[in-house]
Amino acid sequence: MLSLNFTSFPTLQTDRLILREHALTDANTLFEMRNNDDVMRYIHRERQKTVQEIETFITTFNNGFKQGQHLAWVIALKENPAQMIGSIGYWRTDLPNYRAEIGYMLQPDYWRKGIISEALVKTIAFGFNEIKLHSIQANISPANQASREILLKHGFKKEAYFKEDHYFNGEFLDSEIYSLLNK
Q1: Cα maximum dimension of the chain
Q2: Above 90 in pLDDT, residue 177?
Q3: In sequence order, what are the residues at sequence separation of 6 or more whose Cβ sits closer than 8 angstroms to the Cβ of residue 150?
């Protein structure tokens, strides 16, 4: 079985980006992102009501990394590594089956600039080469055309369409599942 046992948090770099561990200093930015209607339009998760709830979320999430449950990075530009502009990572892992779910979000000022694509290339490579995943999946809202396009661009294939498979804000919603196999 796979494990997420790293001696320290793996910081990754691309041409423009640093992918680093979440810090409590990211709480205000993450709070703004998770309460931005545009950012959260297709992310069906409860929104935190206070920055303190986000701080607890960050602490819990970082503890989950230490326990080998998941791995997610803050996306920051190299010229300002302390300023979070997004996040990407393996939010749900199915290590006995060598599979993990990737997810991402980005501040709207950085949309359509290739940021998620650049971060996705690096995290996919890390997932296959370092974690040794066999497959990576993404679960998106069928209405999220931008996410679908970026997944297809990076070789993901549509694996499933689930009708009304989850309940959020008083309604049943559909999901599309995309996956990428480690060849």
Answers
A1: 43
A2: yes
A3: 116, 117, 120
